[in-house]
Design brief:
- This protein is mainly alpha-helical.
- The protein is built from 14 helices and 2 strands.
- It has a single domain, classed as ABC transporter involved in vitamin B12 uptake, BtuC.
- Helix content is about 70%, strand content about 5%.
- Helix 3 packs across helix 4, helix 4 crosses helix 13 and helix 12 packs parallel to helix 14.
Length: about 375
């Protein structure tokens, strides 16, 4: 017989049980999904897939309205690109999207989320119109450069109103830039309904028509104006600065790793101020181009949402300067194509539905790319 008490034997057997079970669980694999916010970039094909999926999803709603989606998309394509008039109108819509999209992309490059391009656009349009109101007799060689300078300054100042609270008081720029949009748009309404309202305009909410000296030159009998040169020149200059200058290198480093950039002695606050000044200035220049090249007056509803569409333009291009040319041209065609489908009984807002769907799938694609599937075994081993 054993000298050990019965209770001790039971306790020993109980204590040994987990140890004996460990080898059975050791080889068991567990899968889990993790979100990795540090994973930068995404594959080049995500924007293409996003556009295709957006067209497919919107086709369901178009079919539900009793229309043939293929016929609608063909009508949109032909209306935007199938005729000389449609093609030039698409280029006209491309100009504000290109300038605003480039401005937004510059800010996004260092993770400053400027969604205030709509307000900066309005500020630039107001400032350019002020030149025509208070200096009406200037010749073209003086009026146009002054309107450009005023619009750049006003848009840049509107951008700084977002950057200064972000830099010195840690105010979230998403909120401040969005709220400033409404301030700028209400200021525009004040001028066109109030002191700048055209007394001969039959109560239309707009300023007096610009003179020929206050209007941007156009190409032949089209509405395509000099603003396209502004946009292409801005893209080229930005691409050169990003690729070949120290400032561009510092922007890349801040975008990749802000903490490492700060430890390397790069002044983050100064870069935020400069970037928002440039971002707002480009959107302001877009406002000047629109009032001087297309509308030839400041009026209520001058922008159909160019500043907001510019966010999708920048995302679709993956912040690439030359990609922004292509994406802004695509969305310019989407806007013009939206107008053309009105002739077959669909509202022009179908283009807004497509824009929203593209943005949704872009964000979803980028988010899914940051997900990682991890496989773990016993005792915390992972692969």
């Amino acid at each position: 017989m054993s000298d050990k008490p019965a209770g001790s034997a039971i306790a020993a057997n109980t204590a040994a049980a987990p140890a004996a079970a460990e080898p059975a669980n050791e080889g068991r694999l567990r899968l889990r999904i993790e979100f990795d916010p540090q994973r930068q970039g995404s594959p080049w094909w995500i924007p293409i897939v996003s556009v295709v999926l957006a067209l497919a999803v919107c086709a369901v709603f178009i079919a539900a309205s009793g229309m043939n989606p293929l016929a609608v998309y063909r009508k949109m394509f032909m209306g935007a690109f199938g005729t000389e008039f449609g093609f030039t109108e698409t280029l006209v819509k491309t100009i504000p999207l290109l300038l605003c999209g480039l401005g937004v992309a510059i800010a996004y490059r260092i993770s400053v989320w400027n969604i205030g391009a709509e307000g900066q656009f309005a500020a630039g349009a107001i400032a350019a119109t002020a030149v025509t109101i208070y200096f009406p007799g200037l010749p073209a060689y003086a009026a146009i450069p002054l309107m450009i300078a005023f619009s750049l300054a006003a848009g840049g100042l509107w951008g700084l109103l977002t950057a200064i609270p972000r830099t010195y008081f840690r105010v979230n720029e998403l909120i401040s830039s969005l709220m400033l949009n409404y301030v700028a748009l209400l200021a525009l309404d004040y001028f066109v309904f109030g002191p700048w309202k055209d007394p001969k305009g039959m109560n239309f909410p707009g300023t007096p028509m610009f003179t020929e000296a206050q209007s941007l030159p156009v190409l032949g009998a089209t509405r395509l104006h000099l603003g396209l040169v502004f946009g292409l020149a801005a893209v080229l200059l930005y691409a050169l600065l990003i690729r070949y200058t120290r400032w561009g290198y510092e922007l890349k480093l801040i975008g990749a790793n802000p903490d490492a950039a700060k430890n390397a002695g790069i002044p983050l606050n100064r870069h935020i101020l400069i970037v928002m000044l440039l971002s707002g200035g480009l959107a302001g220049l877009a406002g000047m181009s629109e009032v001087s090249g297309v509308a030839h007056r400041l009026m209520y509803g001058i922008s159909p949402g160019y500043g907001y569409t510019a966010i999708i333009v920048a995302w679709l291009a993956k912040l690439n300067p030359f990609g922004i040319i292509l994406s802004s041209f695509l969305f310019g065609g989407l806007i013009v194509g939206g107008y053309s489908v009105q002739t077959i009984g669909l509202p022009s807002s179908v283009s807004l539905m497509l824009q929203g769907a593209i943005l949704f799938f872009l964000i979803a694609g980028d988010t899914l790319f940051k997900l990682r599937l991890r496989r773990s075994g016993g005792k915390g081993r992972e692969a």
